[in-house]
Amino acid sequence: MTGTHLPVMANEMLAALAPRDGGIYLDATFGGGGYAHAILDSAECTLWAIDRDPAAIARAAELAAAYPGRVHVRQGSFGTLADLLAEAGVTMLDGAVFDLGVSSFQLDDPARGFSFRADGPLDMRMSREGVTAADLVNHLPERDLADVLYLFGEERHSRRIARAVVAARREAPITTTSALAAIVRRVVPKDKSGIDPATRSFQALRIRVNDELTEIESALRQARDLLAPGGRLVVIAFHSLEDRIVKQSMTEAAGRAPAPSRHDPRGLMQKSDASFRLLTPKALRPGASEVAVNPRARSARLRALQRLPPAEGAR
């Protein structure tokens, strides 16, 4: 099997999710199955696993065989998780966990085109369907490509990169990860942090190809709505764009969103009682020992939310 998988902040995830015997839990981003294994081993519970990657679904089927009757697998985007679960008769969860971004299996397989560390087709599709990164790179107008790199990669050299890409594709289509990375490296100066100059561009294209930010916003709302009283939502994000959405979603649910300006009419509206509490007032970060073993963990941020029992939410 190509790729390796080390679940990031697994102990912190379990502490925040607090699985219990008889509970019903959702792993909305099955990936390599690390969190699913941890949840199933920690309690005699039922786990629903969702992923849009066919390869991940195959791995989830192997897990289901190892835990007879306890694992149920659904293929699809987590942005449609409520529908996927409703089709199976699931309308309430005791907990849900999201491990956002790309999985180690996807990163480590050159044929998937997510990484520039090995040459491969410029693909980046998690579901293996729809528009590829090569389609965007070779057909987007220069200005639109620059916007993608800036908005989804926070790349301050976005216009310079887009100009170079358009010039290169006039000579020949850009179809491989190494070709794109080389173009970016030629026009972007090296970062003092040691991060490869192509990192932000690849992140931006991956997010755009898979519509990740829209999916996250929708999925968090749906997961929140499905939580039973006392149920918990745990999310691990890996870059600021993801974490910003998670933080905003959770703080608003907990009634801790910043107050509007005194000139904003919404400030006159009565504030409703929150139905959730933040379990992580500040994002949790991985320890130095974990980062030493798994460098990919270094940017992880874990946030958690709990639905209050009705009596508490009404206070």
Would you spell out the secondary-structure blueprint of this structure?
Blueprint: H1 10-17, E1 24-27, H2 34-42, E2 46-51, H3 54-66, E3 71-75, H4 81-86, E4 93-99, H5 104-108, H6 133-139, H7 142-153, H8 158-171, H9 177-187, H10 199-210, H11 212-226, E5 227-237, H12 240-253, E6 276-278, H13 288-293, E7 301-307, H14 310-313
Parallel strand pairs: 1-2, 1-4, 2-3, 4-5
Antiparallel strand pairs: 5-7, 6-7
Helix pairs in contact: 7-8, 7-10, 8-9, 11-12
Task: Jot down its keywords.
14 helices; alpha/beta; DNA polymerase, domain 1; seven-stranded mixed sheet; 14% strand; Rossmann fold; 315 residues
Structural class: alpha/beta
Q: What string, H for helix and E for strand, traces the elements in order?
A: HEHEHEHEHHHHHHHEHEHEH
CATH homologous superfamily title of the largest domain:
Vaccinia Virus protein VP39
In this structure, how is the largest beta sheet organized?
7 strands, mixed
Please state roughly what percent of the residues sit in beta strands, choosing from under 5%, 5-15%, 15-25%, 25-35%, 35-45% or over 45%. Answer: 5-15%
**How are the strands of the biggest sheet laid out side by side?**
3-2-1-4-5-7-6
What sort of overall outline do the alpha carbons produce when their principal axes are compared?
globular
Fold and architecture overview:
The chain contains 14 helices and seven strands. The radius of gyration is 21 Å and the shape is globular. The protein is an alpha/beta fold. β2, α3 (54-66) and β3 form a beta-alpha-beta unit. The chain has two domains: 10-99 and 212-313, Vaccinia Virus protein VP39 (Rossmann fold), CATH 3.40.50; 112-210, Putative methyltransferase TM0872, insert domain (DNA polymerase, domain 1), CATH 1.10.150.
